[in-house]
Amino acid sequence: LEMQEQLQKLEVELREVTKNKEKLRKNLLELVEYTHMLRVTKTFLKRNVEFEPTYEEFPALESDSLLDYSCMQRLGAKLGFVSGLIQQGKVEAFERMLWRACKGYTIVTYAELDEALEDPETGEVIKWYVFLISFWGEQIGHKVKKICDC
């Protein structure tokens, strides 16, 4: 009787350890994905700094004496970015959905990861792409974030 109780306790502990191991494995995979995503996003941004525009973005607004600096701050504050990882097979559908929902008011940049990563859901090793979405405006930002969360 005493051995049976001890065996039940050990079974419960073993189940908890197994659950914790699975959670830690998923957390590790997510952190590895974030690391790759940040590394590639950093190269996106470095590449964009090298090719800075040589034109004025709002020449009419900047020369207009009626508009002050705070107006320019408000205009600039609505530019946003979202980055993340997407499976290779879902890139086309993702891009189509963004195009349709945001009516083309987004700029999407992709880069393939050097190595295949394990999918946290299935455990399958697959190719991933890092994406960086640039958008203008709060409403489009909300749409982009909803699409990315799916």
TrEMBL record:
Keywords: Coiled coil, Hydrogen ion transport, Ion transport, Membrane, Transmembrane, Transmembrane helix, Transport
GO cellular component, one term: proton-transporting V-type ATPase, V0 domain
GO MF terms, alphabetically ordered: proton-transporting ATPase activity, rotational mechanism
Locations listed in the record: Membrane
Pfam families in UniProt: V_ATPase_I
Recorded coiled-coil stretches: 7-34
Membrane topology of this protein: Multi-pass membrane protein
InterPro entries in alphabetical order: V-ATPase_116kDa_su (IPR002490)
Function comment: Essential component of the vacuolar proton pump (V-ATPase), a multimeric enzyme that catalyzes the translocation of protons across the membranes. Required for assembly and activity of the V-ATPase.
Family recorded in the similarity comment: Belongs to the V-ATPase 116 kDa subunit family.
Name assigned to this protein: V-type proton ATPase subunit a
Organism field: Rattus norvegicus
